[in-house]
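Suppose a colleague, Dr. K., hands you the sequence of a protein chain of 441 amino acids and asks what its three-dimensional shape might be. Before reaching for any lab equipment, you can write down a predicted structure in token form. Begin with the sequence itself:
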Amino acid sequence: MQGERLNKRNAWYQAIWRWHFYAGLIFAPIFIILAVTGSIYLFEPQVTKMQYKDMMTASFTEEQPIEVQKESFMTEYPDAMITSIRLPDEGESTRIGWMNEDEMMYTYIHPETTEVLGTRSAEGSMDLLVVIHGTLLGGQIGSWVVELAASWAIILLITGTFLFWPRGKNPLRMLMPKLGKGRQWWKQMHGSVALWSSLGLVLIISSGLAWSSVSGAMLQWVSSSTNTGAPMYAYAFGTKPESTVTTKDVAEDVPWATQADLVPTSSPSTLLPIDLNQVVNKSTIDRPYTISLPEGETGVYTITSAAGHPFKEATVNLDQYSGETLSSVTYADYGVLGKLITVGIAFHEGRLFGLLNQLVGVALCLGLIFVVISSFVMWRKRRIGSIEQMKRFEDERIKRIVGILILLLGVTLPLAGISILVVLLFDWLVGRRKLKAEVAA
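The predicted structure, expressed as tokens, is then:
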């Protein structure tokens, strides 16, 4: 009886280990790429400020009206089409976004002297890292691969915790690896580092999925359908004209929670549009913030916080003619899902608690790299024969139950769920073929 229970426990362990091992082996290179590019990009704000220090910084005691600063820019670039203006914080210059044919440019203006300090492409020197991090340079297909890998990373962390959990012993033991040598030491370090990193990695990975093609769209749909994201046209007055344009289509520095929010439209009027000075006077958002200019006769002024901290996020739409507030949404207005994802994204980007957040992010990325490397070392030390030996304890019923449990785990991760279904279908077909062969024999 005891031997039967032991064999059954081994069968459960080996069935879960098989999913954990092969998924880790397949996605290991992608995990390394994501960890390396992510850890470097965490410091993008410091790198950009250092690279464009002469443009982005400006000492001033008195600030010229924003229309005066705009006129100084137009003198330099008379044919430019301005799309946005970022109002500076203390010690910063005013940033004007404009289109140079098909390329977005940023020009920086000294707030007091209105001198043009310099112009650069809106695409920063580190933006290539973002493309690699998000798509592996593979476009839409690459983004699906990244999302699939990220989804499986969460499943690997959960299954790994099960595999490493000390059965019948003090659970705290798993947090402190035993000193030793060889494969056993690597196994202890692999499990301990993964467990120490698991909570932070799950937060980073799950918040990153908010930008993904499939999971991100699903999260936006859930947040809108359940009103747990950002309320549509929050705290607005009067009836709102129909609109099919979302905030992310017409504005810069848009918070995640309001990216899919439909933008209200201005009511065409015989009055002239209000100028930027009036927009600034009506703004109640703390600096720095970005004003995205109206597009067409029914466009609106969209004001978004550029402070970077999630609790200061805000999105305000003003009628371009009357200056009336058509909608206003702040972090306090977000639903529970919107707040959770917003905080998660800030942690993901290293913005939640300053430099310490960035260092924690680097530590988690290094932890992920070590987990991947240690798994490879364990695999090499195990040898092929040991892997084949596991088949002696295999229980087909338990193997299928584990597959279904992992499928349920992947229900909230669409691409992972689809990949699990494919594997289960393949396994079922192979099992039927094997059974027919045995019957025929």
